[in-house]
């Protein structure tokens, strides 16, 4: 039997450009995340689906978009995340300045530019303290972000999708499409209060987790399920609508 061939590294020149920092990588379901000194700095993406988001993703936040856009005029938000503005930004591979822009991003990483780089899984409350979302004590004391979204909002948006019906899953309110689970309130104690379980494929889940861990997360219990946990206090109705639409496509495609 022939040995399994390793998948080619997308946009490998990026790794070469920052090699002096001894970066390490982790696969993310078809993408490649790059870490430097414990921070995720870039994601390399070259996938056959949602090709508009192929290129180099920058681990940044919205407060830095304006200054970064002066250096990267073709930089934009990531479409597959279902939000009009995303914290992470992509240098699209189909832009005429892709290679030069990607190399400029590498220069910023080499210079330890504070605008690029995130600690994976860390999220910040309004008070500025970090929380992982795993501790029940932290969950009880965490502050809400003023969102009024609850399962009533989920129900209203979800029932507008073809074939969706209100139901029960594991004793909790749920939405199903043609009998298949679409979304539900989590029943497992590992989930944070005010969360929603949304069915989604592993590839898209990995991208959501990498790009916006403040909103999306997963616990060990849900790790092997095609789903993601969503903090409802941190999403808008438009984001929720796009997310449920993505889930609807996933579930109905599996049924076909």
Question: What does this protein structure show overall?
Answer:
By secondary structure, this protein is α+β, with helices and mostly antiparallel strands. It folds into 2 domains: 13-120; 130-255, Aspartate Aminotransferase, domain 1, CATH 3.90.1150. It has helices spanning 13-17, 65-71, 98-110, 136-141, 151-158, 202-211, 237-255; strands spanning 24-28, 31-36, 39-45, 55-58, 76-77, 89-92, 123-124, 130-131, 164-169, 172-177, 180-184, 195-199, 216-217, 227-231. A 6-stranded antiparallel β-sheet has the order 1-2-3-4-6-5. Strands 9-10-11-12-14-13 form a 6-stranded antiparallel β-sheet. Strands 7-8 form a two-stranded antiparallel sheet. Strand 9 (164-169) and strand 10 form a beta hairpin. Helix 5 packs across helix 7. The radius of gyration is 19 Å and the shape is elongated.
Topology, please?
Layout: H1 13-17, E1 24-28, E2 31-36, E3 39-45, E4 55-58, H2 65-71, E5 76-77, E6 89-92, H3 98-110, E7 123-124, E8 130-131, H4 136-141, H5 151-158, E9 164-169, E10 172-177, E11 180-184, E12 195-199, H6 202-211, E13 216-217, E14 227-231, H7 237-255
Antiparallel strand pairs: 1-2, 2-3, 3-4, 4-6, 5-6, 7-8, 9-10, 10-11, 11-12, 12-14, 13-14
Helix pairs in contact: 5-7
Average of the residue pLDDT scores = 84
The helix-and-strand class reads: alpha+beta
CATH top-level class of the largest domain:
Alpha Beta
* Proportion of strand residues: 15-25%
The tally of strands reads 14
Shape descriptor: elongated
Strand order of the largest sheet: 1-2-3-4-6-5
**Residue ranges: pLDDT <50 for 5 or more in a row?**
123-146
N- and C-termini, Cα separation: 34 Å
Determine the fraction of residues in helical runs and give it as a percent range.
Answer: 25-40%
Radius of gyration: 19 Å
